[in-house]
Amino acid sequence: MQPSRHQVRRMRALCGALLTTLVALASLLTGASASQADTSICEAFGTTTIQGRYVVMNNRWGTSATQCISVTNSGFRLTQADGSVPTNGAPKSYPAVYNGCHYTNCSPGTNLPARLNSIASAPSSISYSYVSGAVYDAAYDIWLDPTPRTDGVNRTEIMIWLNRVGSVQPVGSPVGSATVAGRQWQVWSGNNGSNDVLSFVAPSAINSWNFDVMDFVRQAVSRGLAQNSWYLTSIQAGFEPWQNGAGLAVNSFSSTVNLGGSTPGDPGTPSGPAACKVTYGTSVWQDGFTADVTVSNTGSSPVNGWNVAFALPSGQRITNAWNATVSSSTGSVTAANAAHNASITPGGQVSFGFQGTYSGTFAKPAAFSLNGTSCTTA
């Protein structure tokens, strides 16, 4: 069995969160912005944001050798990729850019996790630059889970290999071929010890492409590796290098998840987007608080199923909630409707709430979105 890169990755959540905090503190002290173009990242799990909507991560976990990326406003380039690992095992890293949530680090304004049968389409585009003298693949990494989790390895991983150089192969074994999104692919299937992996390998290098991620998600569903009631948690694109890799680049990346693909008769499936207003009322005492959230539909169409996304300020933790199911207790939170309050008529409203703890100075979330659409606040 091939070594599982995700078994190694589990330890990076704490490291990544610490590094992100340190970068943010440095930005405050120097006046620099973490999203500034041409940022160099050499920290193993260092991240930054671009375009105010995507996260770029260095994500070196399989070797102690130095890896650095130079981040631009549209992508990134590997400027140093020292060392190598055996080609019959896991790669040494996965530098990538993503939309969604990865080990509790969610991209700004994302509407992921999103239930699969709530997604009408998920268009994405990519432009790569390749190099010789290295062993690697260039791949999308698409994560699916039965729950809207944001904090680790999901149940099913879909990989789309747009290029591979050297004697490397996906997890598992070949199971045939398929035409997906207008292209022919060799299909591999297996399990790496942590999750199922379904891989689509292009017969020749693809330098740039526009496609719908949901075409590949539907393949996973049809093969019994996911269900329509599951969640799409992140869409990632980057490189898995085994040997060297300096010069590899994502020149540009885009990812959008369009909601509104609800299944008839399923009141719990989010549909939107919708115009909205959120009122956030709190009762605060030493080290604790309750929050009452009222979501108003200020648009002209009904909302059938809802996800309200927001970020809890640092130091706050949810201990219990009512009238909604929350995806996590800290950081980026998605509150999903209960069965009895799934619909919001035009001009109507729903309410949910939660109790929590906090440390330091209490603050309210800065922004809210309903089914991916930003709401006004009152």
Explained architecture:
This protein has 378 residues and is mainly beta. The chain has helices at residues 5-9, 12-30, 213-222; strands at residues 39-41, 47-50, 54-57, 67-71, 76-81, 96-102, 105-106, 114-115, 119-121, 123-129, 135-145, 156-165, 173-180, 183-191, 196-201, 208-212, 231-243, 249-255, 258-259, 276-285, 288-297, 303-304, 307-311, 317-322, 324-326, 332-337, 343-344, 349-357, 368-370, 373-374, 376-377. A hairpin with a 4-residue loop joins strand 4 and strand 5. It is globular, with a radius of gyration of 21 Å.
Question: What structural class do you assign from the helix and strand content?
Answer: mainly beta
Evaluate the radius of gyration: 21 Å
Number of extended strands: 31
Give the overall pLDDT as a whole number. 87
Number of helices: 3
Task: Tell me the span between the first and last alpha carbons.
Answer: 55 Å
Strand content: over 45%
Low-confidence stretches are 27-37, 262-272
Largest sheet geometry: 11 strands, mixed
Shape: globular
Share of residues in helices: under 10%
Attribute tags:
378 residues, globular, mainly beta, 3 helices, eleven-stranded mixed β-sheet, six-stranded antiparallel β-sheet
